[in-house]
Write a structure and sequence with these properties.
Chains A, B: This is Dipeptidase PepE. The structure is a homodimer. By secondary structure, chain A is of the alpha/beta class. The first copy, chain A, has a single domain, classed as Class I glutamine amidotransferase (GATase) domain (Rossmann fold, 3-Layer(aba) Sandwich), CATH 3.40.50.880. Chain A is built from seven helices and eleven strands. Chain A is globular. The two termini of chain A are 18 Å apart.
Chain lengths: 235, 235
């Protein structure tokens, strides 16, 4: 049975990486002591090794070790044999580019659909949607495609941010950007605020955490859904 | 002689579109009564017609008419024959995609290098840099390349935004994003705050407006330069 956690962020304000999710993760990865980490998104441009070391710390707190996919000779085989997969945040363009380079998008999709528990945060959540067209990241590299895993039948906008009524900045709000997305695309988008995640179990998809999420459907005004909502209606 | 204005934004907080630039523009476009407008960036997904109508208003105040490039049968010819060109803001991915579709990047570059006065705001400024890799926009469509006009020998980050020390949001700051850019690219980036513009006259490039700009060079700490600085050193 598919078992996926799609989290808006790894870290909430004032917290340590993953600490708000650790209870969930202990259960999510209960069938394994080792998690395969995909560090390709390289936040701040750090190395794969450095990112893997950083991620090992919170996982250590729940008794799991972490191994970076870059330390395997054959990444496809590493994914096929993994008992748990975590893709961390950073830059979605860099992540997707590297996934295409190593030709492992289909490997991840197959493993997850066959039941390997998957965790994504930020960029690692973006790739769970149909495409990466609703990332917030800067296009610092040019990936061969914006198509991603499609583990859920909609797009993700992580770190969803409400317009700041006091702002004097004239750049587009997140809501405007997603509206522009719908001038060219029709799939729904879920704006996941920091602290929210989507829990996928088999065919069920539920919004978790304490916060509402904002839903953008093509041709409709955006609206809020509350925590614990079933996301079945977005199919 | 090349004559280019590369503006961070069309509109500053509390102002009307282009009003802070109108005196400059009257002089910039003094040799023509008609400006060719490139509305491809479609802010908020509005139509080319609607965007052109919107832009005609401020230009009317300085006695110029505006004609949208979409109303010409042959956009290459429209550019070659234009006496002034303005590319407006919106979504840079949408803009660049359409410029490639119509195969007119080289036409614009040629016209501008031959002296046709050019104005860009926001997305229309982004494309003056070497690449669009430092846009802030959401990648809502997939353009065939991120390479842009290269009218200046660096990249532009329009609507440059300083980190907000009070923010509780965990998404990347603009500075972090540009640092990530330099993990993969070496050209300098100028963070143009709203109200700043670059004035190019022949080979000279000067920062205009009242604000400092933030410079990001590969392998260096970012730093500020003041208004009226010569940008020659970024070559």
């Amino acid at each position: 049975m598919r078992s996926i956690i799609i989290a808006s962020t790894s870290t909430i304000h004032g917290g340590q990486p993953l600490d708000y999710l650790l209870d969930e993760l202990e259960n999510h990865f209960k069938t394994t002591d080792e998690v395969l980490f995909i560090p390709y998104a390289r936040p701040g441009g750090i190395s794969h090794d450095e990112y893997t070391t950083r991620v090992a710390e919170p996982f250590g707190k729940i008794g799991k070790s972490v191994k970076g996919i870059h330390s395997f000779d054959n990444p496809k085989k590493a994914i096929a044999e993994a008992k748990g997969i975590f893709t961390g945040g950073g830059n979605t363009f860099v992540l997707v580019n590297q996934l295409y380079k190593n030709d492992i998008l289909s490997s991840i999709k197959e493993a997850v659909n066959n039941g390997t528990p998957y965790l994504g945060t930020s960029a690692g959540s973006n790739i769970c949607g149909l495409t990466m067209n609703t990332t917030n990241d800067m296009p610092i590299v040019y990936p061969p495609s914006f198509k991603t895993l499609g583990l859920v039948p909609f797009n993700i906008n992580p770190h969803y941010l409400d317009p700041d009524p006091k702002s004097t900045h004239m750049g587009e709000t997140r809501e405007t950007r997603i509206k522009e997305f719908h001038a060219y695309n029709t799939q729904p988008v879920i704006g996941l605020r920091e602290g929210s995640w989507i829990e996928v179990k088999g065919d069920s998809m539920v919004l978790k955490g304490n916060l509402d999420s904002r839903i953008f459907e093509f041709g409709k005004d955006p609206y809020e859904i509350s925590a614990n909502s079933d996301l079945e209606f977005l199919k």
